[in-house]
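BUG: 3D viewer hangs when loading the predicted structure for this chain

Environment: internal workstation, default settings.
Expected: structure renders.
Actual: progress bar stalls at 90%.

Input used:
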Amino acid sequence: MRIARAVITAAGEGQRHLPLQTMVDRDGRTRSLLAILVGSAVAAGIEEVCVVVAPGDQGAYGRALGDMASRVVFVEQPQPRGYGDAVLRAADVVRDGPFLHLIGDHVFISTGARSCVSQVIEAALANECSVSAVVATRESMLPRFGAVGGRRVTGAANLFEIEHVLEKPTPTEAEQTLVVPGLRAGHYLCFSGLHVLTPAVMDILGRHSEALGPAERLELSPALDELAQRERYLALEMEGLRYAVDARYGLLTAQLALALSGTDRAEVLAEVCALLAERELHGSVGASPSHGASPSHGASPSQGMTDR
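Structure tokens produced before the viewer hung:
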């Protein structure tokens, strides 16, 4: 099994701007979210990345990639016909091989020695099957994610045999279908937006697409559910976290997570602490929270984080 190509979906309605957002990466350099994602794939051994975009977006995305542009090819999704349709658009690029897939509006931050992307690729290579990264997620977050049900692989603390896949299940559906023995009560294994998928996924998506009417959407989760019935398909509880940039304050949270796990951790912590202390001080003397730092302080802590 050889994983040489990746697919990043970036054509979602109302979310096309998110991969273009500028962030300060863990090494302190400023990059677009898309460049961060492509860089993580290339660092894990991926040779070519296909980015699925909406018509007319290729120019902006190309400029946002910087020195990563040479590793990328673009494919358009002509109509917003669903997540599965976006993945299927890359079929000619990935051809008949397994491929890495990342969602374009998530940030992945490892809490271990290996990157999140490397963890998923290594698990797929070791087991020679599709692997999806999952995060144990509390029940209240189920409306935001696809989720899986199954059983723990014998002798493996972080691997699960996937038996069912549901997109944004209700708590009742999750309780009936997706309970995984050994997880904390009220928690389910939800997708992180990071997968290695075999070519069978493209075959399934193609068949599902042919059966749809012109106005129907092609989604990915039903295809992954069918994949679990056809061949071995594992979930990896990765050492890391995913941050959905499309959530409320998602970009802020993702930026803080990157900064606090990177080379500028001490500086960012100091700035955050100074910001909190300054606000407490103003509040205690009755000053308006809108007052900035005094001239002797220079730029306020929040300005410093924004400008870097």
